[in-house]
């Protein structure tokens, strides 16, 4: 496997691979999200308890699950970068952090707009909400640490340590609704048993989860490419690209 | 289609404000993120090109100085 992977450890090859992969992620992610959102807003049945306010679920759950998945991805990348001194892994972690932060922000805001009509409060200091807020601060910490050092090898190490330590927060978020008495409802989608949701609502929700995932993949690819360029300014292929871009 | 009219669709059974604010903020912030991410590479390349040109200019100045000395 290492023999096969090795050529992609070169920034130029990784850049080219990203360029090849990007349209697939972008087109699939965009279409899935579009279909899932329209389906969820217009065609999914009204909830018998929450009325039409529940339609926020079609963006709230995808954003929240992506906020956690991206964090795990970022921590794994940081770990690989630290153990095997792979710069590309560090750069991909740096590309993921802002995207994850935006997803966390969306999860919190949409949750707030869902909580107000259903719970009667914009915010409660509940286990699920508080741990998700901590996730946002972890992301902001990682972004700030990475930006704080001129030497990006040091920056990636500092940000990486925070990212890896912060992983402890992920199971806390995930199981907060089971471990503590929470105002937040339990998981709707279950892998091992039947989901607590009708298929008419489940399908658009799943479409949006995959759609968000692919869309985020596309955004991370764009940021990853930009990061490769920024870190490889002294390489001839980047110099050529930069000067060609100027002359256009 | 779950709604009888466009009006009912925007009204969202009385929850229109909460639903549309959520969707607006979500796709608004994703839109901003996409814009910033899509233009980042170009900005980085411009930065590198500017630096290369600056170095080139400095080199040219130094060369001229040396020539005038000789």
Short structural description:
Chain A: Required for the export of heme to the periplasm for the biogenesis of c-type cytochromes. Chain A: It holds the Pfam family Cytochrom_C_asm. The complex is a heterodimer of chains A (248) and B (70). By secondary structure, chain A is an all-alpha fold.
Chain-wise SSE layout:
The complex is a heterodimer of chains A (248) and B (70).
Chain A: H1 2-5, H2 11-43, H3 57-83, H4 87-119, H5 127-148, H6 152-166, H7 169-179, H8 199-231, H9 236-247
Helix pairs in contact in A: 2-8, 3-4, 3-6, 3-8, 4-5, 4-6, 4-8, 5-6, 5-7
Chain B: H1 6-11, H2 16-69
What does this structure look like?
The complex is a heterodimer of chains A (248) and B (70). Helices cover 77% and strands 0% of the residues of chain A. With 248 residues, chain A is mainly α. The longest helix of chain A has 33 residues, at 11-43. The radius of gyration of chain A is 20 Å and the shape is globular. The mean pLDDT of chain A is 91. Chain B is mainly α. Chain B has helices spanning 6-11, 16-69. The relative contact order of chain B is 0.05. Chain B is built from two helices and no strands. The N and C termini of chain B lie far apart (85 Å). Chain B has one domain. Chains A and B meet through helix 2, helix 3, helix 4, helix 8 and helix 9 of A and helix 2 of B. Chain B: It comes from Parashewanella curva. Chain B: One of its GO terms (biological process) is cytochrome c biosynthetic process. Chain B: One of its GO terms (cellular component) is plasma membrane. Chain B: Pfam families: CcmD. Chain B: Belongs to the CcmD/CycX/HelD family. Chain A: It is a multi-pass membrane protein.
């Amino acid at each position: 496997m290492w023999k096969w992977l090795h050529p992609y450890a070169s920034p130029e090859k990784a850049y080219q691979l990203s360029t090849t992969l990007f349209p697939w992620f972008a087109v699939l992610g965009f279409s899935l999200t579009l279909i899932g959102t329209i389906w969820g807003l217009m065609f999914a049945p009204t909830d018998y308890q929450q009325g039409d306010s529940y339609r926020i679920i079609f963006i709230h759950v995808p954003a929240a699950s992506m906020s956690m998945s991206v964090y795990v991805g970022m921590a794994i990348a940081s770990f690989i970068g630290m153990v095997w001194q792979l710069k590309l892994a560090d750069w991909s972690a740096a590309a993921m952090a802002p995207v994850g932060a935006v997803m966390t922000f969306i999860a919190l805001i949409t949750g707030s707009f869902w909580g107000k009509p259903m719970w009667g409060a914009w915010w409660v200091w509940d286990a699920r909400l508080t741990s998700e807020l901590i996730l946002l601060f972890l992301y902001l910490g990682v972004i700030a640490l990475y930006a704080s050092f001129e030497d990006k090898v040091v920056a990636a190490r500092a940000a990486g340590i925070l990212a890896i330590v912060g992983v402890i927060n992920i199971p806390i978020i995930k199981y907060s609704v089971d471990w503590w008495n929470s105002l937040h409802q339990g998981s709707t989608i279950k892998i091992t048993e039947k989901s607590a949701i009708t298929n008419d609502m489940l399908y658009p929700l799943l479409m949006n989860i995959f759609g968000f995932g692919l869309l985020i993949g596309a955004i991370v690819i764009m940021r990853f490419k930009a990061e490769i360029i920024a870190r490889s300014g002294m390489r001839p292929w980047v110099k050529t690209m930069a000067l060609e871009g100027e002359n256009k | 289609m779950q709604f009888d009219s466009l009006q009912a669709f925007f009204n969202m059974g009385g929850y229109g404000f909460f639903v549309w604010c959520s969707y607006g903020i979500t796709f608004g912030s994703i839109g901003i993120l996409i814009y910033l991410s899509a233009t980042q590479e170009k900005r980085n390349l411009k930065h590198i090109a500017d630096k290369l040109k600056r170095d080139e200019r400095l080199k040219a100045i130094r060369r001229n100085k040396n020539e005038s000395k000789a």
